[in-house]
Specification:
Number of domains: 1
Distance between the termini: 27 Å
Radius of gyration: 40 Å
Structural class: alpha+beta
CATH class: Mainly Alpha
Mean pLDDT: 86
Helix content: 55-70%
């Protein structure tokens, strides 16, 4: 259906191509902003995990008051006061670094990297869903604008028909009932046109919010989308895309994540080897008698080997739980692949169905138009009643509305096929 009439009425609207629609959705859709934040948080989690590779360093400063000492005999019979330097302070620096714990740090970093990849895949999957969502709004808006043109043309035709009916009525050839039916049809068409305009405004609002456009913006689809309707390839090609479908990759990486969780948990049953070093400067020296109000500096360095004995009977149970969760993730991965395969097959069938409908509806429109011309001629020659003419008019309107939108349905079916195969 030509869009020239629409352009004249909506010259102030913003015309968007499908590519521009997708760009605006990616940049401004509220839900995608949330998922972008998830990706950024996941990236930072990787950096936090890498910190575990660096040594731990602490520095301390203490100041304190020391009271006088009291020496007491072992039978508590006598006691002697010992003067002590009253001000004490300590400076200390300690450092430690994990040398080995069964690859825990390395696997933890890899685990966070996988979570980052999962966040990115989740964003990609949701981005495709959002793109199809806004495309649906966009094409529905296109359909409404097409329907508006059809209704306007049929209202004009009904008004012309009413003028003829009035002439026949004035000549006494038809009854007042025919005039009323003609007026009623125009009233119904006008009401349907108003409902259509209300739906257009609702869709326009949904699109402006989704695309981050001003509320006052009125969106006009680009009619060139129907000048080169996309053609689908063979079904096997779309099925081959499934292996790279974000949902499939997410399922696979979820299994990998359980593998890493199992390795990290098993590392609890191996010793922890760490290196440490420290320096301590303190006063007074209370180990001497009498106490010396002087600084004593000492340092140390060495290796530390620790083993959690309780891990021998606690960790195996956690490992078993992780293995069960991994089995569930594998089952989910298989289920997702099967569901996507079914969805791709259904989308491909629906695409071909849309092609068939377009061809059939074109023929229906031509037949309905021919039928209307015949009935209109018969009525003008008083060979048919008005009810037959109105029925033919309604059939013509319905056929034109369906055909006007059948090409748009092909476009949507094509993009739905891309979405189901994860390639939108």
């Amino acid at each position: 259906m030509a869009m020239g009439h629409i352009d004249a009425q909506y010259s102030s609207q913003r015309k968007l191509s499908v590519a521009e629609l997708f760009d605006l959705a990616r940049a401004n859709h509220p839900n995608l902003q949330v998922w972008k934040a998830d990706v950024a948080a996941a990236k930072q989690s990787v950096e936090v995990a890498k910190v575990a590779q660096l040594p731990n360093i602490t520095a301390g400063l203490q100041g304190y008051y020391i009271g006088d000492g009291l020496i007491i005999d072992k039978d508590f019979s006598n006691s002697t006061n010992v003067d002590m330097p009253h001000f004490g302070n300590t400076f200390s620096v300690d450092a430690s670094e994990l040398i080995w714990k069964g690859g825990t740090v390395r696997n933890s970093i890899r685990s966070q990297s996988l979570r980052e990849e999962l966040a990115e895949l989740n964003y990609q999957n949701n981005e495709q869903a959002i793109k199809l969502l806004v495309l649906g709004y966009y094409l529905d808006l296109y359909k409404l604008l097409n329907q508006k043109v059809v209704y306007q043309q049929n209202i004009k035709l009904a008004e012309q028909r009413l003028e003829n009916i009035k002439k026949f009525y004035n000549q006494g050839m038809v009854t007042r009932n025919d005039v009323i039916r003609g007026q009623l049809q125009i009233s119904n068409l006008t009401l349907a046109l108003q409902v259509l305009e209300n739906n257009r405004q609702i869709l326009n609002k949904q699109l402006t919010v989704a695309l981050g456009l001003p509320e006052t913006a009125e969106i006009l689809p680009d009619e060139s989308i129907l000048q080169s309707i996309p053609q689908a390839s063979l079904l096997d090609e779309y099925k081959s895309y499934v292996q790279q479908h974000p949902a499939v990759l997410m399922a696979e990486k979820s299994v990998d994540l359980y593998d890493l969780s199992e390795k990290i948990t098993k590392a609890e049953m191996v010793p922890t080897l760490s290196a440490f070093a420290g320096n301590r400067l303190a006063r007074p020296i209370t180990s001497a008698s009498p106490a010396l109000d002087m600084y004593f500096n000492s340092w140390s360095a060495g290796l530390s080997l620790n083993f959690n004995l309780d891990a021998l009977y606690k960790t195996p149970k956690r490992i078993k739980q992780i293995q069960f969760e991994k089995d569930r993730a594998l089952a989910q991965e298989n289920e997702i692949k099967q569901n996507i395969d079914v969805s791709v097959n259904a989308a491909y069938i629906k695409y071909n169905e849309a092609l068939t409908q377009n061809s059939t509806l074109k023929t229906n429109m031509e037949l309905a138009d021919e039928n209307y011309r015949i009935m209109n001629s018969k009525y003008n020659n008083q060979l048919a009643i008005l009810l037959d003419l109105i029925d033919a008019s309604n059939a013509k309107l319905d056929a034109e509305l369906q055909f006007a939108n059948s090409e748009i349905s092909i476009v949507y079916a094509y993009y739905k096929l891309l979405r189901e195969s994860g390639n939108l």
